[in-house]
Specification:
Length: 256
């Protein structure tokens, strides 16, 4: 019997205007807005955060952002802060996504400052870690994940750790249709759980949810979500359409 409720989070990336976002969330609310078996988070682009937040009011759906700056305010053109996200009733924030690391030069130390700032502002960070194809082929998957995880969580206290969500997203599986096998994913998830145990102790590590991300679809979700240490999914492509996202939430509800 696991202590962890499954979580399905949709990362819309740079997709959907506010009206497109409201239309999607309206469908989601109708289909899964009252179920309580699975936690559900949607992460629209910033421009749609406010209107999507209004559209999911009164439902179980929660609102997340895809990034933020660690400072509360100041001369940081183009950035937004944790208090600004909180003011729009966001509860979660994706941090350290591989696209931010690869395309926008974010490193572990920078991401760590964001994790600390999110927790300080009662936002739940969804900290993303994962190896590239070259790193997997070189046999360094676990080393890469360990470095990203330990650096990303540096300075996080034991009492704060249950508020953190980890997403294992092998870079080679993102948007490629190449999903990790359930064995490949479970191996890394178990490794992450072990690292969390070393950092925070067994009781806390058993509470932290570790999501899988990378071409998760309704067809492959049951097998992935059936693994012992896979506590949900961070969904890109399949979160952009109501039917597939709803089916993923249903798969999570049925996973044992
Ligand atoms: P896809 O589901 O499109 O592969 O994206 C995964 C992802 O990057 C979620 O953050």
């Amino acid at each position: 019997m696991t202590l962890r409720k499954k979580l399905i989070a949709g990362n819309w990336k740079m997709n959907k205007t506010p009206s497109d976002g409201v239309a999607l969330v309206t469908e989601l609310v109708a289909a899964i807005g009252k179920q309580t078996e699975v936690d559900v988070v949607v992460c629209p682009p910033l421009t749609a955060l406010e209107s999507v937040g209004r559209a999911l009011e009164g439902s179980i759906l929660k609102l997340g952002a895809q990034n933020m700056h660690f400072e509360a305010s100041g001369a940081f053109t183009g950035e937004v802060s944790a208090p600004m996200l909180r003011a729009l009733f966001a509860t979660h924030v994706i941090l350290g996504h591989s696209e931010r690391r690869a395309l926008f030069g974010e490193n572990d130390a920078f991401i760590n400052q964001k994790v600390i700032a999110a927790l300080k502002n009662q936002l739940r960070p969804i900290l993303c870690v994962g190896e590239t194809l070259a790193e997997r082929e070189a046999g360094s998957t676990l080393k890469v994940v360990q470095t990203q995880l330990e650096a990303g969580l540096d300075g996080v206290g034991k009492e704060q750790a249950p508020g953190v969500i980890i997403a294992y997203e092998p870079v080679w599986a993102i948007g490629t249709g190449k999903v990790a096998t359930s064995d490949q994913a479970q191996e890394v998830h178990a490794f992450i759980r072990g690292l969390l145990t070393k950092l925070f102790g067994e009781a806390v590590a058993q509470k932290v949810r570790i999501l899988y991300g990378g071409s998760m679809k309704p067809a492959n979700a049951p097998e992935l979500l059936g693994q012992k240490d896979i506590d949900g999914g961070l969904i890109g492509g399949a979160s952009l359409e109501a039917r597939s996202f709803v089916d993923l939430v249903k798969a999570a509800a049925e996973a044992k």
